[in-house]
Amino acid sequence: MLGLLSTFIFVLPGQAANRNDALFDLKDTFNSPVGEKVNGVTLILIVITCAALVMIFRYYFTREEKAQREAREMYRERHRSQSTEQKRGWFRLKTDAEFRWIPAHLVDRTRISNYNVDQLIDISGGGLSFSTFEVLNAEDEINMILPTGDANPLSVDGRVIRAVKGDEAYNVSIQYIGLLNGQRDKLVAWIQNNQRTAMFFDKQKDTEEEASEDEEVNEMDVEEKA
Question: In this structure, how many other beta carbons lie within 10 angstroms of the beta carbon of residue 65?
């Protein structure tokens, strides 16, 4: 646009000056304002050109903005879908195992032995829930010492998603913060090991119940035959 305007401003006037000499001769000869008509046409052409350039730029930037907006929406939708699939993919282990925790801002000046001790309700690779008599609110951050079945417990940061007051205690749901892949693998391995143990005991309990039922049936058959 600037290039075209500079052409009209600096080049055309010079050419017009040369033309004006001839135009003045024509004007004198034919007694008609040809120079004024030429200047009017030039002005109209400038206005039309500027308007066309403005329309072209507006169309281009509108299309570019629309494409960027659609790309952002697609990214957000894909991110939400991945987050939902990830949350649904974690197996939640119901457990009453004990763990320790403390508000995050007290970590540097509190010994682990002075952490709060509470019981888990369930735990997964994405978060956990537990019951406590301590008051916690959504968005509070805590540090947790989780059992992993070995001598080195896992230190994990988490954020309170919700805290619901029950009859006696609060049921608190936690989402992990900044959990490293190695830490998550260790935690998931502990969860899977406890899952297998729980399934083994459930199967053993079902077998014992079936055996007990068979013994009762056999005793009833013996009594009937007697």
Answer: 10
Would you identify the CATH topology of the domain 93-205? Thrombin, subunit H (2.40.10)
Task: Tell me which residue of 158, 150, 142, 131 sits closest to 190, measured CA to CA.
Answer: 150
Please check whether residue 125 is in contact with residue 180, taking contact to mean a CB–CB distance below 8 angstroms.
no
Domain limits of the chain?
2-86, 93-205
Please give the sequence-ordered ranges of beta strands (E in DSSP) within 28-181, or none if there are none. 93-94, 98-103, 116-123, 127-132, 141-146, 154-165, 170-177
For residue 141, pLDDT beyond 90: yes
Residues written for the chain? 226
Phi-psi region of 31 (alpha: psi -120 to 50; beta: other; left: phi over 0): left
pLDDT of 208 strictly over 70:
no
Decide: helix, strand or coil at residue 129.
strand
**Beta strand segments in the chain, E:** 93-94, 98-103, 116-123, 127-132, 141-146, 154-165, 170-177
Per-residue pLDDT tens digits for 157-183: 999 999 999 888 999 999 999 989 889
Summarize pLDDT for 7-43 with one digit per residue, the tens. Answer: 544 444 555 445 455 444 544 544 555 455 557 778 8
